[in-house]
Amino acid sequence: MGKPVKQQNSYLKKLLTTRSFSILVVLIALLIIFTVFSPGGNFINAENIKVLLAYGSEFSIIALGVGVLMIAGEFDLSIGSILVFCSYLFLIFFKLNLNYFVVLALTILGGIALGYINAIVTTKGHIPSFITTLGTMMLWRGLTLWFSGGLQQACDVSSSSAFLSFLNGTIGGVFPVQALWFIIVGIILGLLLHYTRYGNWIYATGDNADAARAMGIRTHIVKMTAFIIVGILCAFVAGMQIARVSCFTSRTGEGWELKAIAACVVGGTSLRGGIGDMAGIFLGAFAISVIENGLVVLRIPYFWTYTVFGLVIVFSVLSSMYLEKQKWAQK
């Protein structure tokens, strides 16, 4: 009888010391704090929860892809620019009077192309992804501003109830479909990371690319697919956003690059690659969305949001380094 109790205690101890559990505790604390201090309890009202789940899920979906890429040992600072470029692609295809699902498919092909360009320049040009995507961040947004003239343009897809339900509907009139997509993408990428050979290759590549190559892993293909995953998710969210707001704006995705990195780091993903899990990234992304939404509800000036995210990144990196040192010390 004693052995099962010990096993239960060890499982409980392991659960309580996981990064994901820590994030969950922090997330619950954030929800309580914002609920208590928001004027009139506005944070917890039904309308704000719907906004949080809809808008927050759009960002969080992309953050999941960025997490996979960071585990593979690379960065993508161009996600906001890929998002706005794909939004403009959606607008262009929309004006051709194509079926909206065809428009979305073509936009996703555009996202794949942009992710592929980032991957090729990084892997074949042997240029650090930080530099590559810093350049493409300015390139894609600059081209979008040039083509669009920086003007907001209407893109009303409300004539297709099926398309709206697919990307901007609600389940039971309450639960935004964006949140459902966030869960679905999280599950798919979680299965990919933790239950497939490709997932093992991602971790091996991020941990030590040279050793992975020596084992026969085609690390450039692994990284390339990770970049493409990010491109696909950016394009998908571009369609999702247009379905929600019915227009294109050239400021779409501004600042999402740092928020995505913050979400992944908060979720326990190492900046050096090879460490991270989808549950942590999922919770980290939602925590960042909660913080942003909570600051707005508390009527705190928006520029303070960047200050908060900066502090979150620094604190999360320091805590991750401390935990890694503790693990090495125990070994």
UniProtKB/TrEMBL annotation:
Main function: Part of the ABC transporter complex LsrABCD involved in autoinducer 2 (AI-2) import. Probably responsible for the translocation of the substrate across the membrane.
Taxonomic source organism: Candidatus Atribacter allofermentans
Classification via PANTHER family: ABC TRANSPORTER PERMEASE PROTEIN YPHD-RELATED-RELATED (PTHR32196), AUTOINDUCER 2 IMPORT SYSTEM PERMEASE PROTEIN LSRC (PTHR32196:SF29)
Signal peptide positions on this chain: none
GO CC terms, sorted: plasma membrane
Ranges that cross the membrane: 21-40, 52-72, 77-94, 100-117, 169-193, 221-243, 303-323
Keyword Transmembrane annotated: yes
Sorted UniProt keywords: Cell inner membrane, Cell membrane, Membrane, Transmembrane, Transmembrane helix, Transport
Recorded topology in the membrane: Multi-pass membrane protein
Keyword Metal-binding set for record: no
Summary of subunit composition and partner proteins: The complex is composed of two ATP-binding proteins (LsrA), two transmembrane proteins (LsrC and LsrD) and a solute-binding protein (LsrB).
Gene, per the UniProt record: rbsC_9
Domain of life: Bacteria
Compartments, as annotated in UniProt: Cell membrane
Protein's recorded name: Autoinducer 2 import system permease protein LsrC
Pfam families reported in the protein's UniProt record: BPD_transp_2
GO MF annotation, one: transmembrane transporter activity
